[in-house]
Task: structure prediction
Amino acid sequence: MPSFVYVLGCRTPDRTLTYVGWTTDVERRLLQHNSGTGARTTRGRAWVLLHFERLRTRRQAMSREWYLKRDRKFRKQLAQKL
Result:
């Protein structure tokens, strides 16, 4: 089953936040984050999809998520688009 890794962005008055996750349905997951039923760290904010990648397996998506969470330079470049 194809899986996706995604990067969300949110601008607050004092900083820009990013969130990295994986899913099998990007649209559904974004709706969950914005409705407050997603991850606890994303609740109460309006998130925008900055980037996503389609991968063949869940394992590949989880591995890529781990890598992107540690790639601050890439996330910072994406956040500048907000």
In short: The first strand starts at residue 3 and ends at 11. Residues 27 and 38 are 12 Å apart (CA to CA). Helices lie at 26-35, 58-70, 72-79.
